[in-house]
Amino acid sequence: MSLASxxxxxxxxxxxxxxxxxxxxxxxxxxxxPLLIQLGAFLARSLPHATFRSGNAGGADEFFCRGVESVNPxxxxxxxxxxxxxxxxxxxxxxxxxxTEINLAEEPEVVYQTQNxxxxxLMKEYLEGRKNRASAKVPYLLRDTVKVxxxxxxxxxxxxxxxxxxxxxxxGNGGTGHTMNICRHNDVPFCDQTExxxxxx
Length: 201
Prior knowledge:
Distance between the termini: 21 Å
Mean pLDDT: 92
Helix content: 25-40%
Radius of gyration: 16 Å
Low-confidence stretches: none
Largest sheet: 6 strands, parallel
Order of helices and strands: HEHEHEEHHHEHEH
Structural class: alpha/beta
Strand content: 5-15%
Shape: globular
């Protein structure tokens, strides 16, 4: 989605308390790291009633959240793949929830949207309780799906917009690509750094 910042804020006028997803690759170029922090702070200042949702990963997630935290950490909403995931990097006053709190049998849409031909075998193993090194990836994928579509059990609604930091040499791959696809499937508009970096002074 190509848009200028004024179009983004105009779009969000339809939402009283928008939910905005902040996420991306674990590897962030050194020169880009302060820009992710800057965007997080800019959005938090501009949207005091917004909730900023992320997945607690190192790299882009953390840098975006640092920016939000510098303005108001209570605007952060974080979903983790496990209860004790990256506790040492926790943001004080943020809302933390875990994919392990969700009974997947009661939320088939999360499973349905997470599963694809490439991970169907891993999903089957995980859901049958056969947890191994390969199926250990599944909670991360489920987390990424919940970030976008929300969860009735957590009391979370669908995201309204998403900002990504992608690997522009291999765009749309890995967990970031999975999350982008979930956004597309659910009509959640998003942009990556080729757009949002233009907004920064």
